[in-house]
Amino acid sequence: MAITLSVLILGTAGAGYLYYQHLNNNLRGGSRAGGESGVKKAAPDALGNTPLNILLLGSDDRSSDANVALGGGKDIRKDKPRADVQMLLHISGDRKNASIVSVPRDTVVPIPECKDTDGTTYPATTNQPINETLTRGGPGCTLTTWEKLTGVYIDHWMMVDFAGVVSMADEIGGVPVCVKTGVYDRSTPQQKGGSGLKIPAGTTEVQGKQALQWLRTRHAFGSDQNRAKAQHMYLNGMMKKLQEQNAWTDTGRLMGLAETATNSIQVSDEIKSVSKLFNLSMQLKNVKLDRLSTTTVPTVPYPPKPNSWLSLVPSAADKMFAMVRDDVAFDKNGGPKKPKGDGDGDASDKPKTEPEAPGAFSVTVVNGTSGDGQPATPGRASALATTLQGKGFTRAEATREGEGSKDTAVLYPKSGGDQAKANAESVAKALGLPGSAVHGDAKTVTITLVVGSDWRTGTVYKKPQINDGDLPEGADDKTECMDVYSVYRWDGTS
To answer: Which helix (H) or strand (E) holds 430?
Structure first.
């Protein structure tokens, strides 16, 4: 939502420098990351393209009167806010498709050590839901948690609270959503709470407080997964509404939308300006609505608290996160693909430095097979060090120290330049690894093979083939109209 509106923000630049600075001053910022994830930005492909990943957050902050009035909970207004909505927006390297991946707020995931802006350090934990990350170091901790969980480097985050959602919805003038029957999300004898959403069957344009109620409704839609589905419906409806309004060419609309957007969102510091938001938004200009996929990672009840918390389905989560890491489209609407380069960042006609003899340089082998949250496969580093030795890399040695990694990688010291890169590529080639597995790293001292959780067995790497649109069952959640749980159906008369 914020990215879309950032296009509109620049349209107000004609109003003068002072107003432009006023919009900049409206924006609030914060640190990009709250801890160390060990995840590195993807290397450019042969054309120099890299994907763009942005974490979109909705907080339940109740520190202001406006947020308490909208969300209730005046008794918890001093509590730190939680990130009840979390969506990863992935924009492909070629900027032709985009996908949104949601994780329900009560999903238990490993949360790494994070540090707050006041210097407070929060130890890593494995038994808390993902929405608690915001209380353990702010949005930066949520970003670090997502990086550790997915293996995806996340460039930026953006966050909005209750009052921000209402202001944005009012300014847009209503967003179309649909329910198959009338719905009234209220307290019942079995389930206290409810958003208060009350709309008839069919399509309704929700705005203001009603838009917030739609985005917060869970019980009437049956689950957190279905709430995410409803949120995605809202996002798609908003995009369609803005296009229908010709908002990009209406100066009056631009002014109002720009003012509201900059007052409503908080962003990571490196994009805390109107011009930077505009540059970011231009990355989306070629993405058509039929190539924007909305998904939710499938979940199951979390065994220690099956009635309230969730666990990710490992096979589904691993596949979806691999698709994001490998920049595989979530949709099948792209048509035939153009041939790609080898993914190592070199143009095909660029001359390469020849590698040194295999025994001329050291190779450190690290067992990172715990990168998927499962126990590491014993002996993987030793096994592959032995394999490399048999292929002439006589100075290959295993190390007991190593951090988990979802993807196998060959790292080389950036200070070593083209020669170090060529040596790393020769290691990758010997093991059947693709060129995209080779990365320069400022902290690496020697060529380092990190054996990821994607390679637990065998001595020749075989990367699983994943095709465009090959999502796991239950992940694609785009729908024309929401089902309503029977208890909350409303006939429109009471």
So the answer is: helix 417-431
* Amino acid symbol at 341: G
Give residue 349's identity as a one-letter amino acid code.
Answer: D
CB-hemisphere CA count at 13 Å for 91? 21
State the DSSP string of 214-232: HHH--GGGTSHHHHHHHHH
Q: Return the percentage of the chain with pLDDT > 70, whole number.
A: 85
The single-letter DSSP state of residue 371 is G
364 within 8 A of 450, measured Cβ to Cβ:
no
**CA distance readout (Å), 59 to 82, 118, 185, 215, 294:** 6, 20, 20, 12, 20
pTM of the full structure: 0.79
Residues of the chain with pLDDT under 70: 1-17, 61-79, 162-164, 242-243, 245-257, 337-351, 401
For the segment 65-119, what is each residue's pLDDT rounded down to a tens digit? 554 454 454 555 566 788 888 999 999 999 999 999 999 999 999 999 999 888 8
What single-letter DSSP state applies at residue 370? G
Residue 208's pLDDT is: 81
The CA–CA distances, whole Å, from 198 to 220, 223, 482, 489 equal 10, 18, 14, 10
Neighbouring CB atoms inside 10 A of 390's CB total 12
**What is the spatial distance between Cα 415 and Cα 92, in angstroms, rounded to a whole number?**
30
Question: Phi and psi dihedrals of 160, rounded to 5?
Answer: -135, 150
Domains and CATH numbers, the chain: 2-334+476-487 (3.40.630.190), 358-452 (3.30.70.2390)
Residue from 250, 84, 257 nearest 170 by CA: 257
Q: For residue 489, what are the β-bridge partners?
A: 183
**Cβ neighbours for 286, distance < 8 A, ≥ 6 positions apart:** 95, 96
The 8-class DSSP code of residue 442 comes to T
pLDDT at residue number 255: 67
